[in-house]
Design a protein that fits this description.
With 585 residues, the chain is α/β, with parallel strands linked by helices. The chain contains 16 helices and 24 strands. A 6-stranded mixed sheet has the order 7-3-2-11-19-18, covered by helices on one side. The longest helix has 25 residues, at 501-525. The chain is globular and about 60 Å long. It is found in: Cell inner membrane.
Length: 585
């Protein structure tokens, strides 16, 4: 089996992975491995913008940004990590500009900023224009810029290689096993440091804004190697996905003046968030939409969606500020948003939980935060816990850039102080994967992948969605347990080596059922409503019992062990604004 050596292997070529690569390149030999071409990474789909208290549009401060992030998280975010992110945000934006990101501009030449849900001035007094943007293609231009910078700095790329497992020796991570999709050959990548930036896992739900590649491979691999996942019950549904399709309509549409209306034409968010209305945090807006539908005030013949009204904006403004949204509405629904409202419904969008890390991206191997040497994670696969129970819009790209960079810097420090000779590579992981592939392709019986995956997506959509209750969550755990067994016995019918996507989907499915069970178990155990986790049977937030992170481990046989970890409330000790309180907007 071929063995390739680099000082650093980064798995994932979105903004977190590329920002880390740019930081490491020139100091150490770094390679980025991705199951896609880097420019097809899901970061490129981010539309609305990236938050930073630059104050270009009006007075703003990182402290107000931190307050909004913590309040938006329903006080579950780790406050030190939030402070780090918000204080670093203005510098990060200027750095991106200097690297070549073509931000939209005000007439005086400064980077333009617009309102986004949950972002306020003066500790919640009024909405503030904090989100920097490039029309509605912000992720796209950031991704292209960092890819260009990575090429300029000599980063090695392995495109269309899918990670299968970690290599570990002497308690440290020192490589990965991957499959080259083009040839079907297994390869070992030996390194002194490994970083996961593999993205989210929205494809475990039927209706989602996530790309087909977002199957949560990094989380499944971490679970299989005895590492925990944190806060998996907190999965954000974006309020405005295209009706029945889930394709995202950015929050920037409401930031620019769009209004949500029910089937009766009412601006219903005035009922649920009277001060900031349509720009309330996403969890509140999604629940409000479903409440309107529950009360029979939905739109259309089925009364199962609401309307995003952009007709109050001029056609020129829509074309300038929201060109992708205009084309999406026309192409997929045949609606011109300048003339008619767009039918929308909530869509599974973002995972607040993931592999637990510290503020430097170091992966924690247990509930006490013990570091796993040689292993980092950043981006949506990670849980540094700046988003807590609910992420504010435009904080995601900021998370990727800030903690991708910090992980890169920490990897440099780590490599500078450890021996230049890497820990000898254990080939046991490669042998296990080779055997697993042989079993999948050599099995005479067993189910196909598609019906199991579809059933999983239906279970997650029906029982682990915006509204949850004990009976539904218990059913979900029971059904996913059965799906784990069925997924373990699936059969791969395609016997070819080259571009065997069926084999890759089989491996992805086995990850999906495991972390989906962690989501369902964590949601069942958390007997309160907080942020994106809304329980019909426990409708109040319970700080006395549940101001804690959930930690999950995968046991042999597929069981999930659930425990808790204390939330960091460091800012609350010095500022009354950061003490958990009632969450009104």
């Amino acid at each position: 089996m071929q063995v390739v050596y680099h000082d650093v292997i980064i798995v994932g070529s979105g903004l977190a992975g590329l920002r880390a690569a740019v930081e490491v390149a020139g100091k150490h030999d770094v390679a980025v491995l991705s199951k896609l071409h880097p420019l097809r990474s899901h970061s490129g789909a981010a539309q609305g913008g990236i938050s930073a208290a630059l104050g270009n549009a009006e007075k703003d401060s990182p402290e107000w940004h931190a307050y909004d992030t913590i309040k938006g998280s329903d006080y579950l975010a780790d406050q030190y990590a939030v402070e780090v992110m918000c204080n670093d945000a203005p510098r990060a934006i200027i750095e991106l500009e200097h690297l070549g990101v073509p931000f939209s501009r005000f007439e005086d030449g400064r980077i333009a900023q617009r309102p986004f849900g949950g972002h306020t001035s003066n500790f919640g007094k009024a909405p503030v224009r904090r989100t920097c943007y490039a029309a509605d293609r912000t992720g796209h231009v950031c991704l292209h810029t960092l890819y260009e910078q990575s090429l300029r700095k000599g980063v090695s790329f392995y495109d269309e290689y899918q990670v299968l497992d970690l290599c570990m020796a002497e308690g440290a991570v020192n490589g990965i096993v991957a499959i080259e999709i083009k040839t079907g050959q297994l390869m070992l990548f030996h390194a002194r440091a490994v970083m996961f930036a593999t993205g989210g896992y929205g494809k475990a739900w039927r209706t989602t804004s996530n790309a087909f590649a977002n199957t949560g491979d990094g989380l499944g691999i971490a679970l299989n190697n005895g590492m925990p996942l944190e806060d998996m019950e907190f999965v954000q549904f974006h309020p405005t996905g295209l009706y029945r399709l889930g394709i995202l309509i950015t929050e920037a549409a409401r930031g620019e003046g769009g209004i949500l209306r029910n089937g009766q034409g009412e601006r219903f968010m005035e009922r649920y968030a009277p001060s900031i209305k349509d720009l309330a945090p996403r969890d509140i807006v999604s629940r409000s939409i479903y409440e309107e539908i529950r009360q029979g005030r939905g739109a259309g013949p089925m009364k199962d969606h609401v309307l995003l009204d952009l007709t109050g904006l001029s056609k020129e403004k829509i074309v300038e500020k929201l060109p992708e949204i205009e084309s999406f509405a026309k192409i997929y629904l045949g609606v011109d948003p300048a003339e008619k409202p767009i039918p929308v419904q909530p869509t599974c969008h973002y995972a607040m939980g993931g592999i637990p890390t510290d503020a430097n991206g170091r992966v924690s191997g247990d509930a006490e935060g013990r570091e796993v040497p040689g292993f980092w994670a950043a981006g949506e696969v990670a849980c540094v816990s700046v988003h807590g129970a609910n992420r504010l819009g435009s904080n995601s790209l900021l998370d990727l850039i800030v903690f991708g960079r910090r992980a890169g810097k920490d990897i440099n420090r780590y490599l500078d102080r450890i021996c230049l000779t890497p820990i000898p590579l254990d080939t046991g992981a490669a042998a296990r994967m080779s055997e697993k592939i042989a079993v999948l392709k050599g099995r005479d019986g067993g189910e196909a992948i598609t019906p199991i995956r579809a059933e999983l997506q239906n279970v997650m959509m029906e029982n682990v969605s915006v509204f949850r209750h004990e009976q539904g969550l218990s059913e979900a755990v029971e059904k996913i347990t059965a799906l784990q067994k069925r997924a373990e016995a699936i059969r791969v019918f395609d016997q070819s080596e080259k571009f065997n996507t069926e084999l890759l989907e089989a491996i992805e499915l086995q990850h999906m059922v495991n972390y989906s069970k962690a989501v369902a178990v964590s949601a069942l155990e958390r007997r309160e409503t907080r942020g994106a986790h809304s329980r019909d049977d426990y409708q109040s937030r319970d700080d006395a019992s549940w101001l804690k992170h959930s930690i999950c481990f995968l046991e042999e046989g597929g069981a999930i062990t659930h425990m808790q970890k204390t939330v960091d409330l460091s800012l609350a000790s010095s500022r009354a604004e950061f003490v958990p309180k009632e969450r009104k907007y």
